[in-house]
Amino acid sequence: MIRAKKSLGQNFLIDQNIIDKIVNILDLKNRNILEIGPGTGNLTEGILRKSPKKVLVIEKDYNLANLLKEKFEDKIKVINKDILRVDENSLSDQTLTVFGNLPYNISTEILCKWILNLEQKIWFDSLILMFQKEVAERIISNFDNKSYGRLTILANWRLDIEKICDVSPLSFQPKPKIKSTVLFFKPKKKFFLLKNSKNLEKITRIFFMHRRKMIKKPYFQLFNGDESVALKIGIDLNSRPQNLDFDTYLKLTKEFENLRS
To answer: Residue-wise pLDDT tens for the chain (261 aa)?
Structure first.
């Protein structure tokens, strides 16, 4: 019998109603699918019923990877690796539709890695991902909100995001202590161009390091005490990080790049 491993953040989705809701978000016929953390394969079964062209699954747990190979045989390709160590750009020649009940302990790291790597190529057409509800609220937050932060800005820079539903702990085995949320992501066709996505990551990291303090200190740290950029963009340096909207952070990053070009 397979037992969920706490160390890998495993909670297996067992609610058929939620599985049906997830696989019915898109028409999966003839699509190339990637599933992250399939566990015992309950969602995988739902995906296969929709007649996809190809299904890849990435499962870090060796025992679960073997179980999936026995259960599905040649219907899927099982990759027994840590998703954080996988080069997603090498997985397929065609864009992938990605499903994932992401481990809570690394879900933000996975999403940030994918966003920051989008400069190489757009390797997915859609992401259908489940997060801890609190993390999902950070992703879809608006500015001037306590949930607003680095993750909000990075995600909304490159992706259009839609909340699908909340998921009760009763939908999992074992039951987690918190609620989950399913989000649907699509790459934006038009987005604010930056020379290097890591500059946006740097700007937001420095600003939100002390999110309750005024932005004056991190601003002067980045712009060497020069107030002209703040005046140009119209930033009140007595504001706090969550008071600045998405566009302001993108403009700040652009100005930061211009000063270093």
So the answer is: 445 444 444 588 999 999 999 999 999 999 999 999 999 999 999 999 999 999 999 999 999 999 999 999 999 999 999 999 999 999 999 999 999 988 888 899 999 999 988 876 799 999 999 999 999 999 999 999 999 999 999 999 999 999 999 999 999 988 888 999 999 999 999 999 999 999 999 999 999 999 999 999 999 999 999 999 999 999 999 999 999 999 999 999 999 999 987
Name all domains of the chain by residue range, CATH numbers in brackets. 6-187 (3.40.50.150), 197-259 (1.10.8.100)
**CA gap 241, 88 in Å, rounded:** 32
Q: And the tokens for 108? A: 């933000």
End-to-end alpha carbon distance in the chain: 58
Contact 79, 92 (CB under 8 A): no
| Contacting residues for 17 by C-beta, under 8 A, at least 6 apart | none
Residue 30's closest CA among 79, 91, 96, 99? 96
DSSP string, 203-246: HHHHHHTTTTS-THHHHHHHTTT--HHHHHHT--TTS-GGGS-H
Q: Of 185, 182, 8, 6, which is closest to residue 80 (Cα–Cα)?
A: 8
Q: What's the CA gap between 217 and 221, in Å, rounded? A: 6
